[in-house]
Amino acid sequence: MIDKVELEKVIQGVLAPLAIEVVGITIGCHGKSTQLCVYIDEPGGISIDRCSQASRQIADALNRLDLIPSHYDLQVSSPGTDWPLREARDYRRHLNRKVKLDYSRVDEEKPQSVVGRIIEVDDQLLTLDVEGQVNNFELAKIVKAKIVVEFK
Questions:
Q1: Are residues 67 and 124 in the same domain?
Q2: Which residues of 42-59 are buried (b: 16+ CB within 10 A; e: fewer)?
Q3: Same structural domain for residues 101 and 71?
Q4: Same domain assignment for residues 61 and 100
Q5: How confident is the chain (152 residues) per 10-residue block, as mean pLDDT?
């Protein structure tokens, strides 16, 4: 059995010196082999070259420590624009980017949708520029948030 907590610790330890953040890890089966998907990011977005560098470092560590007892396939990629933003660190990685939030308000039954550009983030508040107005949103009340893809 694969210890996911130990696996995450090892992968984070390998990537920390590279200033690459582990956003998520999934483990599944694909035929007779284990499929390990590691989603990584860094401020400004992660490049293919950095994903390749991370993949080599992760594979070296996993092979050396023998944490996955069977044959495994390793995939390392960016989380993509559909990856939900959940924690303050997720928003910090995307400063100055446009996001769409579904925000829960006490006085409303359904969450309110808001689109704005991330100005600032702390552990409790997300500050957005919404059509020229500065608005604060409590992170705990954000139901759903995703990056809005902008074409230039």
A1: no
A2: beeebeeebbebbbebbe
A3: no
A4: no
A5: 85 96 89 90 89 96 87 92 87 91 82 94 96 95 91 78
